[in-house]
Amino acid sequence: MEKRLNYLRRGILCAVGGAFLAITAGAASAGSYPDKPITFIVPYSPGGGSDQQARRLVPGLEKALGVKIRIVYKTGGGGAVGFSELNRSKPDGYTISNVVVPNIVISAKGKDVGFKPGAFAYIGMTARALGALMVPKGGKYKTLGQFVAAAKKNPGKLTVAGVGSTGRANYGELAKILGIKTAYVPVSGGVGKMMPMLVGKHVDAGMTASSHAVRHRKIVDTIVIAGPKASASLPGVPNEPKWTYTTTWGVMAPPGTPADRVKVLNAALLKATADPKVRNMVIKNGLSPMRQTPAEAKQYVAAAIKKHSK
After folding, report:
1. Angle at the Cα of 164 (from 160 to 170), degrees rounded to 5?
2. Contacts from 291-297 at CB under 8 Å and sequence distance 24+?
3. What pLDDT does residue 172 have?
4. What are the backbone angles phi and psi of residue 247, rounded to the nearest 5°?
5. Is 240 helix (H, G, I), strand (E, B) or coil?
6. Which mean pLDDT values do the consecutive 10-residue runs of the chain (310 residues) have?
7. Burial class (CB within 10 angstroms; exposed 0-12, middle 13-18, buried 19+) of 249
8. Distance between CA atoms of 134 and 145, rounded to whole angstroms?
């Protein structure tokens, strides 16, 4: 009997010891993250809104996380190439990416894109801008009225550039409101590739976020912005209340990234965006700052999926 009790005691001690080691090992693993460099995927060309966001955030993220962050560009498909790359990445918290809403939702409708927008681990949205229609400075059209009149006089002849299928959908909403037909020119790679087209007057207009209109106002004139009121960062530019287009930038991780690591990344993101220099830079560039929990970011994307599924 005594011998049997000893075996039982040893078994219990081994089980307890094993559980303790597993718990402490897990805690040590969580506590040591991150312990190596992180890759930050930018799914658009250098110079665009995603590139600007990444470069604003990286110094603060590196400081908060204590590791280096390497920016890599994976362009094409209106962001779909970069989003697909993240989707295939190991969900260990060492690869993150920009997310642009509604781009990620609209680009996911393409054939064989290989990702579902609702499946990613969202870390948080950081900034938002209104839609804007721009024309080359010194070009044919100075006002929205002139542009609309020319488009109605020459249906389908005027050209409007936008980023991929996302630009097509968002500009299509404005064209319908204005009652005009124009030729849409899809740009692969982002706004960084669109601006030279406007400067060279290869297109009659370009459609993107108002933050780009603010940043590039020396080379383009904005003739209308989306939303219910005028923008202080673009004084004198008329607004179109029925045009609901907004662009939102955030950060996400691959599907299945552990919640504890997403939490660490979110805390670092909140620290980075709280920096007065970063906040002032966001406002100066015509953006509205945003701060979100991972749950709020996920809900934000879910609402965009619902809106653009119609």
Report:
1. 65
2. 291/124, 291/126, 292/124, 292/125, 292/250, 293/124, 293/266, 294/121, 294/122, 294/123, 294/124, 294/259, 294/262, 294/263, 294/266, 296/124, 296/125, 297/122, 297/123, 297/124, 297/125, 297/250, 297/252
3. 92
4. -115, 130
5. strand
6. 47 45 41 94 91 95 98 91 96 97 87 89 95 93 96 96 86 95 90 90 93 90 92 90 93 98 98 95 89 97 87
7. buried
8. 13
pTM of the model: 0.77
- Domains in the chain, start-ordered, CATH in brackets? 38-128+247-308 (3.40.190.150), 130-240 (3.40.190.10)
Phi, psi of 38 (to 5 degrees): -115, 140
The closest alpha carbon to 272, from 61, 75, 114, 41, belongs to 61
- Among 197, 191, 188, smallest CA distance to 210 is for 191
Strands (E), 137-214: 159-163, 183-187, 205-209
- Look at residue 310 in the predicted model and tell me its pLDDT: 67
- Looking at residue 176, what DSSP letter applies? H
Q: Do 273 and 126 touch, CB atoms closer than 8 A? A: yes
- Are 221 and 243 in contact by the 8 Å Cβ rule? The answer is no
- Nearest Cα to 95, choosing from 84, 86, 103, 106? 86
In this structure, the number of other CB atoms found within 10 A of the CB of residue 126 comes to: 26
Amino acid at 119: A
